[in-house]
Amino acid sequence: MVKTGHKKFVKKEKARVKLKKSYKTILPKGLNVTNTEFKVKRIVIREQLKERGENELLSAHRKLNVKELMSRLKHNNSAVKQDGLSGLFEIVTLNATSLIKSHFSSIVDSVSSLMLDISGNTRKAVVKLLSAMFSQVTEEELSPLFEIIVRYLACAMSHMDSGVREDSLLIIDILLEQCPLLTAKHRSLLPHFLDMISSQTRSHEQARQLTVDLDSRTTTTVFRIKVLTRLRSMLQAIVHSSKTKPGQSNANREVTVSSDTRHVPLYSSQQHAQPFVYDKKVTSNQTLADVQSYTQMLMPLLMDTFIEVVADRKQAGSDIVVEAVALLQCVVDVILNVIHILRQCDTGGVAWFKQTYGRSLRDHLFTGRFPYTVGSWGSLPNKNAKQRRKDCEAALKLLNTSLDLQCTGQNLSLCLLAFQLGIDSPVNLDYVLTSIKCCRSLNPTILACLDAIVSKSDLSQCITVTETLLSLARDPGLTFVVFPYLYNIVIRVDVKKLAKKTRVEDWLDTLPTYLCQKTPIPGSVINSIMTLAARRIPALQNSIDSHIEHILDALPELEIKECERNSEPELSYKRSLARLIYWVQEWDEELSEEICLALRKQHFGPLTPYVEDLWLLRNETFEK
User: Fold this and answer.
1) Helix (H) or strand (E) holding 198
2) Which domain holds residue 585?
3) 65 in a structural domain
């Protein structure tokens, strides 16, 4: 018979060599326990044993000093860098400015290079830290280190990574907000704005073509609007820096004369101290050739950018989308600032711009399009709904105003551009007049349009505008709204010529009555009336002579808008009105006695000494 498997297994087990089993114990009795003894060697780290000073700046979270935090900025790990930046932010925000200034240069030097970091969270932390630091120092204190920031910023604006380029715009916002005058001096940043939206062609050095970035987090149109918005702010800073020069001021200076005063200096022979320029290459002056060269690169890009967004004129007419509204505002503001800079450089700069780009602007911005309106809520029709909504929100945020379906602000800016370049069209003037009728508050753009109209020395247009304003001035609700516009015309145009065609003398005759009413009056109106009174305009002078008693009688109780009762600003305006005593032509003994009686009764309150001096001075002039 065949053997079964079990029998084979048993036979094999019997044949296998077996080890003998030991009956001895492994450990003696009583020693069957675990030995827990171990040896320890001390490790000493010197930095941990270092004592902190009482006045040493430490972060609130990890208690690290500035040097330790800056060492973390050089680490390869982005989380470690962000931890160091957050610690520096805590030190900057929680400590006094005087304690931070000693570390300011080292922090700026270490942080500036992180503008180019590949991590977006790190770059956002850099923006947050720089904003906190720049708000605590002056521009003069920042000037020695500003060149470092500008160099790294220029690299960020031309970086290959689209995220770095977009975040560089946030750094520009900080510089323009915290130190605009210092930023305006570094005009080397201007070409980098063009590099962000275009590239040079091989055919010509100044010729450029728009570029499209497919890797960007935002659409091309929104990104171009962001860049042009910062370019507009940069140009505005340049214009403002040219207007405000140190040591120069046209403001009136009030001198208090007492018994100890021996002389009043009319001018100073000493040279004012100018801020020290650390980089000799940086200069605030720019020649006409430099501005023209930059304009020749900029203008074609502006036109091409706008044409890409605006729909075909035959299909849409003047209706544009929300992104086009924001882009139109940026384009027009940039052009207006360029014209202002050209005017500052040379008187022939504006004429060159008008001859070179006047026809192009008229064809692309005005003909068949003006005035603009918002035709559809959303973006271009080939985009999906989600992206369309996102682009609209981004465009509205960049506009920094609520959406106006009639595009009033953009159309008024276009009217201002047309008046400055001499693009004559009755549509532009009619739009300005219509806007004046609808506007219930002072609009600076309308005021600038009237300045441009007056500067053209076109009497017919001045008469048309003046008649419209005079008709609106009869409305009590628009009296002080229209006043700045009329004042701007009267102060710059010959009143005799206007009086032949308009009733401007009737309006001048009513101005002193504003000073006798119990309703509050703006302080700007008081200053304007005093300026007109100094010009000795007959219509206004006769009205002042007939109302001077009522004006002085109402002076103590006169209410001035946005001024607290008996505050220094209110007393300053009232002292200005009291000077009308000196401008009275029909001065006689009866008027002098009435003022003397009011002075005895202390009718003028705290203004009594000032009015008494004017009264004595006027009597001396009358006796002579």
Assistant:
1) strand 198-200
2) 529-624
3) no
